[in-house]
Amino acid sequence: RRRFQNGSYKVSCAPYGYRAENGAYIVNEPEAEVVRSIFAGVLSGKGASAIARELNERGISARRGGKWTDATVRGIISNEAYTGELVLQKTFTDDAFCRHRNRGECARYRVPEHHAAIISRAEFDAAQEVVRRHAREKGIGGDREKYGARYPFSGKIVCGACGGTFKRRVHSSGHVAVAWCCA
């Protein structure tokens, strides 16, 4: 955290479209073209799964030679690093050494103009608005709201051991069985 504050933190793992050299992000042009095409697809109204399918059909491999998934595409769409801005401490580790997404529990540190941008801030903001509009159209409010009231017991059964809510699981080994269990 001290290195975040005084600006001496060195990034080690660059997002798709960049490579890390001596703590700096350098644009990887072939990957940057893919990132631009992803944002162009979003701005033209395509969903993440359609974009992932299209990239796989074109034979473009994701990082480390993997296949594209809708989650990978959504991760790229939501990463402001492509605008040249670096946001530090998006996640944090608690006292039990468990990682969590930082939703205001810890300070975040923004480093504007940290590296060369692949897309403009206006394109990024427009893509975020398209994603929000699609979510509203589908009735998706947030991470937990999407499935929060899907089944009668959703969010109502609480685990006595950890305090988390039970999730509905479908087990199929010859026959289909529905069970509610703690994550």
Features:
183 residues; two-stranded antiparallel ribbon; 19% strand; 8 strands; alpha+beta; globular
Structure in words:
By secondary structure, the chain is α+β, with helices and mostly antiparallel strands. 31% of the residues lie in helices and 19% in strands. The chain has helices at residues 2-6, 29-43, 48-57, 70-77, 121-138, and strands spanning 18-21, 24-27, 86-88, 91-93, 99-101, 109-111, 166-172, 176-182. The strands form 4 sheets. Strands 1-2 form a two-stranded antiparallel ribbon. The longest helix is centred in the C-terminal third of the chain and has 18 residues, at 121-138. The radius of gyration is 20 Å and the shape is globular. The protein starts with a helix and ends with a strand. The mean pLDDT is 86.
Strand content: 15-25%
Shape: globular
Question: How many DSSP E strands?
Answer: 8
Tell me roughly what share of residues is in helical segments.
Answer: 25-40%
* Count of separate DSSP helical elements: 5
Strand order of the largest sheet: 1-2
The major pleated sheet works out as:
2 strands, antiparallel
Instruction: Name the helix and strand elements from N-terminus to C-terminus, one letter apiece.
Output: HEEHHHEEEEHEE
Structural class: alpha+beta
Distance between the termini: 31 Å
- Overall pLDDT, averaged? 86
